[in-house]
Specification:
2 domains, mainly alpha, rod-shaped, single chain
């Protein structure tokens, strides 16, 4: 009897499919491939012979696995795809397209970051808020921006009235370990002296 219970537990034991989000397509697709291989249905996604007939039951099982692993809003956009392969390809296009848009945004913001310069009449606090807002947006998109990279940009973006202090910081400070807050503190002290 104990043996029968173990068999029924094994047969009802399912796999928890990962949920697809807007930012995890690559990891999701790798996990789903393994899950579908474990269920013996991956072959309907990557057909070895495109002319061969697909077993309908396997196709429906693969489609069910995909449907279980995507949010409702994505499901509504791909529901008209009739096969697991077409559904898989539509999700790939949708997610990688979104990733390309994200990368394009990152590139646009990085160009804006590189072109950023403090205006002579601009308050240091206002400029630093603009710089930090841009850095935060870039980092939120998953792009790594090292503190030292931002520190160096901050020093390069200063107008001529800050030349003396930026030169001193560059000559005597270790830009690899200095934080943005430390640099801003030094620049604010210099700005107060100028007043």
């Amino acid at each position: 009897m104990a043996m029968e219970m173990n068999k029924s537990k094994e047969s009802t034991l399912g796999l928890n499919y990962p949920m697809l989000t807007k930012s995890n397509y690559t990891a999701w697709s790798l996990k789903m491939k393994v899950f579908m291989e474990a269920h013996g249905v991956w072959e309907v996604i990557v057909l070895k012979d495109p002319k061969a007939a697909v077993e309908e039951k396997k196709d429906k099982m693969a489609l069910a696995a995909i449907y279980q692993s995507i949010p409702d809003d994505m499901l509504l956009t791909i529901v008209e795809k009739m096969t697991a392969k077409r559904t898989w390809e539509a999700l790939k296009t949708m997610c990688l397209g979104a990733d390309r848009v994200k990368q394009a945004k990152v590139q646009t913001m990085k160009a804006e970051f590189e072109a950023l310069q403090m205006k002579d009449v601009e308050a240091l606090d206002d400029f630093c808020m603009r710089l930090n807002a841009l850095v935060t947006k870039i980092r939120e998109l998953g792009e790594d921006m090292a503190e030292s990279y931002v520190v160096k940009k901050l020093l390069r973006a200063m107008p001529p009235k800050f030349l003396q202090i930026t030169s001193t910081i560059e000559q005597f400070g270790d830009l690899k370990v200095m934080t943005i807050k430390e640099i801003i503190g030094s620049l604010k002290a210099h700005e107060e002296r100028l007043k």
